[in-house]
Amino acid sequence: MITILCAGSRGDFQPYIALAQQLKKYKKEVRISGPKEFKTFVTSYDIDYYSIEVDMNALKIDPKMLEEAGSADNPLKMLLAFNKMKAYGDFTTKEYYQACQNSELIIYHPGLTIGYFAAKELGIPAVLASPFPMHKTKQYLSVVMYGKSKPTMINNKISYLMIQGMLWMAGKDSAKSFWKKEFGRLPIDYGAPYEYHNQANQPALISCSNYIFKRPADWNSHIHQNGYWFVEEKDDFRPNQSLVDFIEAGEKPIYIGFGSMSMMKKHSELGSIVVNAIKKSGKRAIICGFGRPDNLTNDIYALDSIAHAWLFNHVSAVCHHGGAGTSAAGFNAGIPSVIIPFSNDQFAWAHRSYDLGIGVKPINVKKLTVDNLADALIAASQPDIIAKAKEIGVKIQTENGAKDCAKVIIDLLEN
């Protein structure tokens, strides 16, 4: 049994589902472990799930803390938010450790270093699987500072200390406390484990295209980045006929959706801004996650959720918050990106798309208006952006990151 430890939102789980799908093709038993609210989503792909049964209400964790973590728009705020989230780790560490029992190998999200220490305790391999590049390199800033700071030697070094420090902070105290209670000592190799993944029996896997951020030449050979990890959707997916009719009724629409970001109370006005910007731009659009705002027209189709893999092949551009998974899906579709970053690594994907010429200039959500969003939607139809987006999309589709990384794991187990 291979156990994959996950955390985050629905979008954060998708790359790990993709990796699990590829491992199952090698006839391996695989299970994903994470919060109970994602069980139905994961098992819908025929992947076993080990639920972490933590009741956020019973723990009396302040919802504002979680909102702060999702809204941190600079490195200092991110650091403070991750520090506050340590309390959550105290209640999940024991259950994640139990999820690792009877496994032959542990794959873990960088925010769940309990996976590394559990594997060491159990005498089995640990594999770091990250949804973004996070290992030290001199070639570019980490995703918490890219687009916000100049890429100097000092800033590069600080940026990787920052991203690894934040992720380590989220779980270090809870791991320390659990091991002292359970075993009367610290975990084996106690410390931020990310740079420990530098040998064949302890590799690191990265879900990122080399056409977005090229694999750094100064990385250790056991850090594997071979492309994005995309979920293989079931063939029986059938979109709502009214959506199909809308798409076919005129020029290709633009997709606009901000994922979980649009659910935050502080961004309750987003739906109105989006609808009015669409009207001003003269574009047709599909909006997702805003309910049904007032004053919808025949050129705007509202939905609650849908598989990006299908929809992005039927739109002319994607406007979103810059989540790593949504960004990857947009890049892969080969269409222009309009990214409105809210927090954390979203700024990196927004600025990277602009730097590569496959997206328009990012607009910080704090500065979003009807006028500048309308201008951005119009700018996404520039021929040079369309051509570059298509070119990179074709290149990304030549990669098969999940398959190649699954082979790394299989080779590790066999050798």
Summarize the structure in words.
Helices cover 43% and strands 12% of the residues. The protein contains 17 helices and twelve strands. Strand 4, helix 7 and strand 5 form a beta-alpha-beta unit. The longest helix is centred in the middle third of the chain and has 17 residues. The protein is globular.
Reading off the top of the CATH hierarchy, the class of the largest domain is best stated as: Alpha Beta
Radius of gyration: 21 Å
- Number of distinct beta strands: 12
Strand order of the largest sheet: 3-2-1-4-5-6-7
Low-confidence runs? none
Q: What's the overall geometry?
A: globular
Q: What is the CATH-assigned architecture of the largest domain?
A: 3-Layer(aba) Sandwich
Number of domains: 2
Rounded mean pLDDT is 88
Count every helix, treating DSSP H or I runs of 4 or more residues as helices: 17
Task: Summarize it.
The protein contains 17 helices and 12 strands. It has 415 residues and is α/β, with parallel strands linked by helices.
Descriptors:
415 residues; alpha/beta; Rossmann fold; 2 domains; 7-stranded parallel beta sheet; 5-stranded parallel beta sheet; 17 helices; 12 strands
